[in-house]
Amino acid sequence: MLAVDQREAMRLMFAAAGGAPVADRVLTDFKVKATQVLTPHASAVLVDRQFALDAVLDAGAVHPGCGLIVAADHFLPGNGIPVDAVEIDEGVDPFRARAQGAVALKLLVLWRQDEDPAVRRAMVADFVARCRAAGLVSIIEPVVRPPRRGWEFDREAAIVAAARELGDSGADLYKGEMPHGGRADNATLLDACRAIDDAVAMPWVILSSGVEADLFGNAVRIACRAGAAGFLAGRAVWQSVIGARETEAVLRDVSVPRLRRLGEIVDEAVAGR
């Protein structure tokens, strides 16, 4: 599955590539082009309300064989970062989203060990209930962050702790981070992914943020061997295209083969389990 729901993070990518202020239109145009070019090769695409949903629908950019997922998270900036906290986006009406063709909603959940787990679980429960009421699949995306107080942070332990806390939340799909950023040896990666698989009581997939594009294929292979159902990723597919002059052509030449190969890796790994 393909993700193009990045917001201020994508603006930062464009700024790094070009060095000039990045208008909202730049993000929207890229998201529409990426959706048009890549969704014939994806089982689903995740888009955001802020920059993409209306434009993608108006352009008829989603391939008929590709499911539409709408991000239902509202990002709150703070402490110098674009996403310091998250709440459910009240601007996303699940019933309207389904009427527009969506099959699922996604919610980012920031996990910090020094914040109240009951607050996170309550937000997830609310989100799942909204999805079920509208007949939509619920996807949660726990992403771990260092604690707000103190300096000690074991990212790998936090990833598993988040999975244990939210893996039985009743959501339909768990979108998790790849342990070790995919940079450890295969045996270590496999053990870490098996820990996630043991912790969650629902199908799960990995995201590509924090994983180098050249390592993501192996990360997908290892995660699927451990029990993952696949991936829901964006950066590993299209980040290298950011800033290209001929965006559509480079998406076809670079991103399409990457996405297709990742799909093949999922099929091969799942068949070999």
Automatic annotation (TrEMBL):
Keywords: Lyase. Coiled coil: none annotated. Pfam families: DeoC (PF01791). GO terms for biological process: 6-sulfoquinovose(1-) catabolic process. It comes from the Bacteria. One of its GO terms (molecular function) is 6-deoxy-6-sulfofructose-1-phosphate aldolase activity. Signal peptide: none annotated. This is Aldolase. It comes from Streptomyces mimosae. The lineage of its organism: Bacteria, Bacillati, Actinomycetota, Actinomycetes, Kitasatosporales.
